[in-house]
Design brief:
By secondary structure, the chain is α+β, with helices and mostly antiparallel strands. The chain folds into two domains: about 1-190 and about 350-415, 3-Layer(bba) Sandwich (FAD/NAD(P)-binding domain); about 195-345, HI0933 insert domain-like (Helicase, Ruva Protein, domain 3). It is built from 14 helices and 19 strands. Strands 1, 2, 6, 7, 8, 9 and 19 form a seven-stranded mixed sheet that branches. α10 (about 275-285) crosses α13. The longest helix is centred in the last third of the chain and has 23 residues, at about 395-415. It starts with a strand and ends with a helix.
């Protein structure tokens, strides 16, 4: 049997492309070795699925640190507002939460994956529980896919195998090798949106979440910060995570981390100036001059952070606060405004939300997602060298690139313009 389209990968972008193609009446084949479709999609957003962000296409591009301009055409065709309306028109109720993050109202990522899977199946998609071994190309065009058990032929092929993050879901990087064998350049991959290990031992603070702080990332040799944002971060036994930490991880080069070229600085009291903090310390001292330093710290910091702070400013916890000098008070204020950590490494792929690197965007037509080297071969989603920050932006990219590929295939099928 020959299909209109063979989709390699039943994840977010593969299923979205399959749904759009199926609704247009095209005969599709989805190759997915996992027992269930959308396995990785089902665990995104801690099982809630932040499927997009209620913002403009331009704002999405601002949240894509690598190759944002490549996405201009795709996001123009399917901006976040159209993603929202697409899902709502098919019966999925959505809700917008803090940071304009859009989730299914049910709070269940399964509902998103189930909806896409059901549309694919109801519109006649054939699902084969196999892994693609290679793409069959003839006369410079993709015409099918090889698996261990045989060959499947199609007028076009979409490679939507994802990256290397969450390998337990099947993201093993095999799609990169398939693309390379067809002559494509694959940019080096590294974990992105991943916790950061630090040189400093922060295990005593593990589990502590700091809200309403500012995290700033500095790089040696640069006058301006690489990144600075207000929000939330969480301490882990080995370093930091949480929204601020994950975003900072996107902006660091692994080789520079190894050279200790970065510094993370946490402003624990962003609403106060150093002078205001000093005034507050003086009030605390005046109100109870016989108290020890540990009591002073407990009044302004979470308990888990107090011992680390005392060591950082080199003041004994048992010291009576009435004896604190102005120099010591300024040192305390400096720590509160600039708690510094040194990144040592990024956590591995199995803890990463997304993969950095992938198919070089210069080898993909941005208007259609078609390979510039192999006709009728399309790339969608995480396999492309475009990763974004947290907030629903990565799934937005997955859906937009899938839509561009599907739209181009549908148009060429209708116009019978296959070369």
């Amino acid at each position: 049997m020959k299909y209109d389209v063979c989709i390699i990968g039943g994840g977010a972008s593969g299923l979205f492309a399959g749904a759009v193609l199926g609704e247009a009446g095209l005969k599709t084949l989805i190759l997915e070795p996992n027992r269930e479709l959308g396995r990785k999609l089902r665990i995104t957003g801690k099982g809630r699925c932040n499927l997009t962000n209620d913002c403009t296409a331009q704002e999405v591009m601002k949240n894509v640190p690598r190759n944002p301009k490549f996405l201009y055409s795709a996001l123009s065709k399917l901006p976040p507002e159209r993603i929202i309306s697409w899902f709502e028109a098919r019966g999925l109720k959505l809700v917008t939460e803090r940071g304009r993050r859009v989730f299914p109202q049910s709070g269940r990522a399964d509902d998103v994956a189930d909806l896409l899977s059901e549309i694919c199946i109801k519109t006649g998609a054939t699902v084969v529980r196999e892994k693609a071994a290679d793409i069959i190309a003839e006369n410079g065009a993709a015409v099918g896919v090889k698996t261990k058990s045989g060959e499947y032929f199609a007028e076009s092929v979409i490679l939507a195998t994802g990256g290397k993050s969450y390998p337990r879901t099947g993201s093993d990087g095999s799609g990169y090798k398939i693309a390379e064998r067809l002559g494509h350049t694959v940019k080096p991959q590294s974990p992105s949106l991943v916790p950061i290990e630090t040189v400093e031992n922060v295990s005593e603070m593990s589990g502590l979440t700091l809200k309403n702080v500012v995290l700033t990332l500095f790089e040696d040799g640069r006058k301006k910060p690489v990144y600075s944002e207000f929000g939330e971060l969480t301490f882990m036994p080995y370093g930091i995570s949480g929204p601020l930490g994950l975003t900072a991880s996107c902006l660091m080069e692994p080789e520079k981390i190894a050279c200790k070229a970065y510094k993370l600085v946490i402003d624990l009291k962003p609403a106060l100036t150093p002078d205001q903090l000093d005034a507050r310390l003086l009030r605390e001292i005046k109100s109870d001059p016989k108290a020890d330093f540990s009591a002073l710290l407990r009044g302004i910091l979470p308990r888990e952070l107090c011992r680390f702070a005392a060591e950082a400013v080199n003041i004994p916890e048992t010291a009576q606060i009435s004896g604190l000098t102005r120099e010591q008070r300024l040192k305390i204020a400096a720590f509160l405004k600039g708690f510094s950590l040194t990144p040592k490494s990024l956590r591995p792929f199995d803890e990463a939300i997304i993969t950095r690197g992938g198919i070089a965007v210069g080898e993909i037509d941005p208007a259609s997602m078609e390979s510039r080297f192999v006709k009728r071969l399309y790339f969608t989603g995480e396999i492309i060298d475009c990763d974004a920050f947290t907030g629903g932006y990565n799934l937005t990219v997955a859906f937009a690139t899938a839509y561009s590929a599907a739209e181009n295939i549908i148009q060429r099928k209708e116009e019978k313009t296959w070369d």
